[in-house]
Amino acid sequence: MRRRKERGSTDLRNKKRMLVFLVCFFLTTVALIIRLGYIQLIKGNEYKKAAMENWARDITISAKRGTIYDSRGKKLAVSVNSNTVTCFPADVKKGSKLIEAESSSSKGGFITSILRGINKSFFNQEESSNKEEVAKNIKTPEQIAESLASILEMNYDEILKKITSNTSYVILKKWITDEQAAQIREAELSGINIIEDNKRVYPYGSFAPYVLGFTNVDQDGLYGVEATYNEYLTGIPGRMVVNTDANGRELPFGYNEYYESQDGLGVVLTIDEVIQHFAESAAEKVKSDYNAKRATIVVMDPNNGDVLALASKPDYDPNDPKIPTDKDLQEQWKSLSGKELQESWFDMWRNPAVNDIYEPGSTFKLLTVATALEENAATLESTYFCDGYVKQIPGENIKCWRYYNPHGKQTLSEALQHSCNDALAQIGLDIGKDPFYKYLRSFGLEEVSGIKLNGEAPGLVKHPENMKDVDVVTQAFGQGVTLTPIQLVTAVSALSNGGNLLEPRIVKQLIDEDGNVVENFDTVVRRKVVSEQTSKTMLQLMRESAEAGTKQAYRMGYRIGGKSGTAQKVINGTYPDGKFISSFVGVAPVDDPKAVVLVMVDEPDRNIGYYGSIVAGPVAADLLENIMKYYDVEPVYTEEELSGVDAQTVEVPNLLGLTIAEATKKLIKANLTSNITIEIEADKIVKSQFPKAGEKVVKNSVITLILN
């Protein structure tokens, strides 16, 4: 009886254990099913993505950067096809392991030999032979580094370090030659790939660098239009997806995918390549003639705000932006420390026409007179008396530049011609500080002009509550107020086009690779600043100022108007002796303005000359004359001018088909010169010229030559 009870008790315990086991098993199964469902349904996409990333390698294929054109379709910045050497270190390291594995397998025992025999009998023997042949061709990392060092002309240790690093992907060298690429492909180096790449090239070298800017090695725009229109120029990169094993090594029979890149859009500038050449040559010449620190020239179409040229010397070549074109600067930089050199680069890359503010001096008097006319604080009949000193401000020693020989009584036009500080001081006081400040703001002096170039600086003007009478007086003749060259050109353009302040335009279109227009950038009128009548009066006053005042800006038949300026340079809030900015702002022709030009010469050698009328005036006049000829603007002569025209003109010879050397000799013989100011090969052929052969031009005129 007791045994039966003990047996029953044991069975019950076993059943309980079995039940507990089954419950645990059931719960574990349910938990595993839930976990599996969680992995498959909830986390499935995430794990799938992670797995794909482990099984594949992404290689970025650079998109070809869009071309930058001048306004007439000349290519100023292009991307050319190139090759870049890349490396997957895992594949390089695999070479050593395969060599070791092959060596080990050849020493295998009896079973290994049997298995190798079965493999040859029942499987594709040719494929096996091919694999053995491939294994024989695999090189060690040291051998690969040695081959690459020889082909790429690089340091062996540097290459070995890169190809054996723990990174998944490394670029060994960008933009190699086609011959180097062919040698690497022929060498069949495991883990080493040649991929398509693009290199940014500027065909004209140091041409308009402050407009174009440049890119870094990754083809991202850093300065100029390359930076401000980077999103349009960049395009969409392509991809090459390569199947890999768990260690990141490429699978020999994996599935690879290639996604083609999409090229960037082309950018059409407002810059005219011919006018830009005129400006570059003029800036280089005036800087050299007057041993100046810098020369900056801006040319604008006053009717639509198009920047036709923007040049500043010294400059740099965008193809190699860390080296200045100025030989003296190159020598100076050799002794600089790393930090000093970097600061010098940034200083060189600054766009003086857009980034730098300065006191404009007497060129600013145009805005003062326009404000007085608009506010009825002056008329053409107004008269002013100059006794050499500004006596309206007690306690201040302000004098006219010609205090030693005062101008005496003069009209408004004569005051502008004489650039009389005494008269302008009175005009400023007649305007009053509140209206004066209102118009200075209206001319855009406290805001950026809106030109699409990076780093633009706003001008500085005192607010009325902080403006004393002495500030009104000094600002009236261009001292104590600062602006950028582009702001002054924009303001004078408003005086020339009927009174509309325009936003300077540097890009007018975006186009695709087939030349179709994707987007137009229209002219933007910011505001009306003066009336059409005031604009007409100012053009008349500017012509009288250029012909009777500056005199050096007079060019027979081309109706040039403008104003010169000679301003003491401000450095750290003071006016050091002997430091000047000489400038001239001009417009032509005054009866139908087509171009406004500003020439600004920074720190000309005062022993040679520093007055704006002497230094900058002739440069601006020559430039305007060349532009008018380029535009086929017919000169209009007075009767007095007609009598001397024939004696001063020569006939342009036919230069087509001649070498540049032959053409130059022919031009010199005809008392003419060419626009070629850089060293070129003497056998380059002239394929077109402007003006055309047979046309009459003034002696010493510049003939534009286009070479093959």
UniProtKB/TrEMBL annotation:
Keywords: Membrane, Transmembrane, Transmembrane helix
Record-linked Pfam families: PASTA, PBP_dimer, Transpeptidase
Residue ranges occupied by any PASTA domain in the UniProt entry: 646-708
InterPro entries reported for this sequence: Beta-lactam/transpept, Beta-lactam/transpept-like, PASTA_dom, PBP_dimer, PBP_dimer_sf, PCN-bd_Tpept
Keyword Membrane: yes
Domain of life: Bacteria
Database matches in CDD domains: PASTA_pknB (cd06577)
Protein localization: Membrane
Gene3D superfamilies: 3.30.10.20, DD-peptidase/beta-lactamase superfamily, Penicillin-binding protein 2a (Domain 2)
Transmembrane portions of the chain: 20-38
Main location: membrane
Family: Belongs to the transpeptidase family.
Protein's name in the database: Stage V sporulation protein D (Sporulation-specific penicillin-binding protein)
